[in-house]
């Protein structure tokens, strides 16, 4: 009776394909699966109470330290080339980007003084236009009040004055929009008195002062004694 090769043929399908690619994270985790599971068992919120428990935890901790080290190495193997490629591409773009910034700043500096002067002139013109519009509005309203309904010339004069007032208002609005482009308002400052500024901050922004003090103490408590700060040493597991 001839041999049935159907099952054998099915099993052979795809046998030349490469093995599935393993995720580098999974590959780094795999050798330490038992240690991770044991660590998770211990991390149930209960504190160690005996020396035997301590030794058992220390043994697991030793493996987890090795696991963390190897995991860091595996991460560097994957991320390192990507980071170097990113650094290289950033470095390649940087001179051109910097040059574009220099051009922007240089061109802005060329027109800065003139734009500021022109903006001041236009602001004066706007104020004058608004003042003129206001004058004509009051004049038109006064003419309308005084014009006798039976005096056609007075009525015509009042109507003309109202049209003139509207035109003046329109001109004032146009002047308000006629400003040099590319100007912005910036706030400058000079610190004349450090002590006065410190007292002001302490009085008006306690949160900022507290944040500064806490950060300063964190960075400097090793180096010198700071009034109002207690420093001591104690031991802890690592």
TrEMBL record:
Residues 133-145, 153-167 have a biased composition (Basic and acidic residues). It comes from the Bacteria. This is Uncharacterized protein. Residues 1-22, 133-179 are annotated as: Disordered.
């Amino acid at each position: 009776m001839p041999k049935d090769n159907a099952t054998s043929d099915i099993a052979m399908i795809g046998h030349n394909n490469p093995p599935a690619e393993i995720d580098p994270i999974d590959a780094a985790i795999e050798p330490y699966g038992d240690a991770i599971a044991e660590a998770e068992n211990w991390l149930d919120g209960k504190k160690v109470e005996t020396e035997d428990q301590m030794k058992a935890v220390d043994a697991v901790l030793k493996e987890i330290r090795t696991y963390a080290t190897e995991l860091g190495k595996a991460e560097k193997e994957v991320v390192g080339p990507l980071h170097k490629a990113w650094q290289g591409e950033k470095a390649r773009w940087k001179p051109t980007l910097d040059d574009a910034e220099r051009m922007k700043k240089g061109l802005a500096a060329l027109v800065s003084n003139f734009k500021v002067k022109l903006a001041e002139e236009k602001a004066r013109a706007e104020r004058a236009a608004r003042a003129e519009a206001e004058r004509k509005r009051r004049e038109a309203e006064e003419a309308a009040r005084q014009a006798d309904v039976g005096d056609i010339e007075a009525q015509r004069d009042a109507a003309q004055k109202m049209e003139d007032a509207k035109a003046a208002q329109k001109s004032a609005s146009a002047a308000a929009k006629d400003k040099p482009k590319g100007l912005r308002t910036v706030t400058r400052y000079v610190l004349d008195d450090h002590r006065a500024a410190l007292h002001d901050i302490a009085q008006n922004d306690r949160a900022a002062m507290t944040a500064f003090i806490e950060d300063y103490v964190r960075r400097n408590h090793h180096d010198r004694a700071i009034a109002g700060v207690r420093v001591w040493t104690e031991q802890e597991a690592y």
